[in-house]
Every structure is written in C-alpha cells, then in structure tokens.
Design brief:
The protein has 290 residues and is an alpha+beta fold. It has one domain (3-122, 131-246): Jelly Rolls. It contains 8 helices and 12 strands. Strands 1-2-10-7-12-6-5 form a 7-stranded mixed sheet. Strands 9-8-11 form a 3-stranded antiparallel sheet, with no helix packed on it. Helix 3 runs antiparallel to helix 4 (69-77) and helix 7 runs antiparallel to helix 8 (266-288). The relative contact order is 0.19. The mean pLDDT is 94. Bound molecules: fe (ii) ion.
Length: 290
C-alpha cells in the first residue's frame, strides 16, 4: 500500500440526519459512525459461539466447497494468514436468520428514504439482490480483490464482533486500479498491501483511505468507491446495501442489463424496468416534501 499518503475517513460518534446527508451521502464521501449501532442487541449477542450453538447446520458454498456454519466457525477461530478461513463466507440474514433481524434495530438511514425497504418497492426489483448479509471471517481473511459493489449500491458495514481493516479508493482513482476487462467493478490488483508494481505501475498513484473499524462501529461508503478488507482475528460483520435517490436509476439500469443477460424475457424485463421508473418518480416526489 502507498503508505506515504494514506487518507482517513471522517469519524462521528453520532450524526444528525441533515449533516449525514449533506456532508457525506449527497457528497459521495464515506463516513464512520462509531456509536449509533453499539446499542443494537446484535452487538454482544452475535458471537462465534452463538452462531455455532444455534445454527450449526446452516451452510454455504465457497469456491466449490460446501461448508456448514459450525465448520466455518471452527475454521474462523483457527484461522491464520498462512491458512485463512474460507472467505467471503456470507449469508443473507432474512433468509437464514430471520429471527435475528430485530437485533439490527434501529436501522440507520442513509437517504431521505430507505428505498430498498420501502413498501412501495416492488419485490421483483429487489429479487436476487441480497440486502442484509452477515460475514464470518478470521485472522488473515481478506477479499481476494479490490472491487466496488454490484448494481451501484451504496454500502453500510457494521462490525458486530471483532475488528476489521478497510482500504478504500475514491472512484476518481479508477484509472490507477486496472479494472478487469470482463468486469469493470473488479480490480486486477489482488493484494493492495504488497502490490505488483511491475505489472501495475499506475497503482502507485492511487491514494488509499485506511481505517480499522472496531466492534460496534459502522462505515458507510457510497457506490463506486473501491474497497477491500482484512481481518486479524475472528470477525462477524453485518453488511447492508443502501438504495436511495442518488443510485436508484443506476441500480435499475444495471438490474435491467442483468435481466437481459440472464435470459429473462425481454417483455418482462421492459415491464419491470418501466414499473421501476414509475415507482422511482413517486418516491422522488415524496422525498421532495421531507
Ligand atoms: Fe464489497
């Protein structure tokens, strides 16, 4: 990593809605809120032992291997940088742990309206988009590449258990991050801590933001911000995508491209897109009065 010029993300214990929107969300700037989620029942309750005891048989596949949550927790606890626990190991909270959604209240709001949670939002527009996810990682667990999130969604991440290091890059640094030709949201740079500058010389010009997110702290970063994470100890993270007026149209455009790419009928995709546009217009009108 370019240690000579590392930037920091602003931190607030708590923040008013107006300042949050004006200074950060609408300004395309990340922010850390240290205290707002500390009151959540999840913080203190969601531990590796809690999940192993209550949900041992839940499983997911990571790079071709089906791993139960009980096994993943064992691997998380034994994880080392040389033999890291498989990662990302993430599960949709509403699907796998619906009873635990109430542990994440009150939810934080990063827009005039939480469009993803609005009753106006047709289910079809969110189908296949994980909204609330929980990630289990251990010492040495890291994303295999720098990326920005799919569908132009903004991201909120709260550390429920343990700490996690974040490296972020401003969207303007995309020119130094060697986006992959098959997916422009993924960087070819696989290790930002020890980058291959012979292969990726321009990467030296990218300016990292570096932060350690502590237990109970929340980071918000807007869509298009490149990021990767690294943990040094067992970690449970809640990740939540955010849809508001700023990314709604880009989300819809990207979703439409996906529908078309996955063989959905053109008629169905066009109808869903048209409904999405109308709903977006209604939401914008409602937000204008808030
Ligand atoms: Fe991500």
């Amino acid at each position: 990593m370019n240690n000579g010029n590392v930037l920091r993300v602003d931190r607030h214990a708590t923040i008013g809605q107006k300042e949050l929107l004006n200074e950060y969300v609408n300004n395309n700037k990340p922010v850390i809120i240290t205290d707002s989620a500390k009151q959540w029942p999840a913080v203190g309750k969601w531990t590796p032992e809690f999940f192993k005891k209550n949900y041992p048989k839940v499983s997911r596949e990571v790079r071709g291997e089906v791993i139960t949550l009980a096994d993943q927790i064992d691997r998380v606890l034994a994880s080392t940088p040389e033999r890291p626990a498989p990662y990302p190991y993430n599960l949709e909270v509403e699907d796998y742990f619906p009873d635990l959604m109430k542990d994440l209240e009150p939810q934080l709001l990063f827009g005039k309206m939480d469009r993803g949670a609005s009753p106006l939002m047709p289910k079809i527009l969110l189908h296949g988009t994980p909204i609330h996810e929980v990630f289990f990682g251990g010492n040495g667990s890291s994303f295999p590449f720098v990326h920005y999130d799919a569908l132009f969604l903004h991201t909120q991440i709260t550390q429920i258990y343990g700490d996690k290091d974040f490296v972020l890059y401003h969207p303007n640094d995309s020119q130094y991050l060697y986006p992959r030709s098959d997916n422009e949201k993924f960087s070819q740079v696989t290790n930002v801590f020890e980058p291959d500058l012979v292969k990726f010389p321009l990467f030296a010009k990218a300016t990292p933001y570096f932060e350690t997110l502590r237990q109970g702290e929340t980071i918000f970063f807007p869509c298009g911000w490149w990021h990767t994470t690294l943990t040094h100890a067992p970690s449970i993270t809640y990740g939540r995508v955010v849809l508001n007026s700023l990314n709604y149209d880009r989300y819809l455009d990207d979703k439409y491209k996906r529908w078309m790419g996955t063989g959905q009928s053109k008629l169905k995709a066009n109808a869903a897109y048209a409904v999405g546009k109308v709903v977006g217009g209604v939401m914008s009108t409602m937000e204008a009065f808030r």
